[in-house]
């Protein structure tokens, strides 16, 4: 089962992945280096399956939050490299939570409870409406405010179902 971890930081470089014998640029896959507030460097592998919130085009110097699946195997190298599942540019008054929610719409870590409204936009990666239940599925939830209760109550602006 997927368990998503978030990393916040500033993009220090974006490079195409070099593959093959002649080390030609692939250009369909990127390696994004991020420096966190505590000066750690983490690299994120980005491909066509990486979802960018609001379809933003990130650049060097942008402050981002990237989510990766910690249940996947990763190479034991430094700096660490993870496959980014979701990336969002840090936005004022807009936050992102990636994970799964149960039938009561409580997140798998128990920290959030969704309060869905009839106008909550629930879509797939391709921007089409998602017509089924979201519980038990990997989702990216975009929201603006939360309560200070436990679990925090959030009313999503948008939910993106990360269909695999």
Which characteristics define this entry?
164 residues, 0% helix, mainly beta, 5-stranded mixed sheet
Explain what the structure shows.
By secondary structure, the protein is an all-beta fold. The chain is 0% helix and 50% strand. The protein contains no helices and eleven strands. A hairpin with a 5-residue loop joins strand 2 and strand 3 (41-46). The radius of gyration is 17 Å and the shape is globular. The two termini are 13 Å apart.
Task: Give the secondary structure arrangement, pairings included.
Layout (H helix, E strand, L loop, with lengths): L3 E16 L4 E12 L5 E6 L4 E2 L10 E7 L11 E9 L5 E5 L12 E3 L6 E4 L14 E8 L5 E10 L3
Parallel strand pairs: 3-6, 4-6, 8-11, 9-11
Antiparallel strand pairs: 1-2, 1-5, 2-3, 5-6, 7-10, 10-11
If helices are DSSP runs of H or I spanning 4 or more residues, what is the number of helices?
0
Give the mean pLDDT. Answer: 92
Order of helices and strands: EEEEEEEEEEE
Largest β sheet strand count, sense and barrel closure: 5 strands, mixed, barrel
Q: How far is it from the N-terminal to the C-terminal residue, by CA?
A: 13 Å
Strand order of the largest sheet: 1-2-3-6-5
Gyration radius over CA: 17 Å
Structural class: mainly beta
Q: In percent, how much strand structure appears in the residues?
A: over 45%
How much helix is in the residues? under 10%
Low-confidence stretches: none
Shape call = globular
The overall strand count is 11
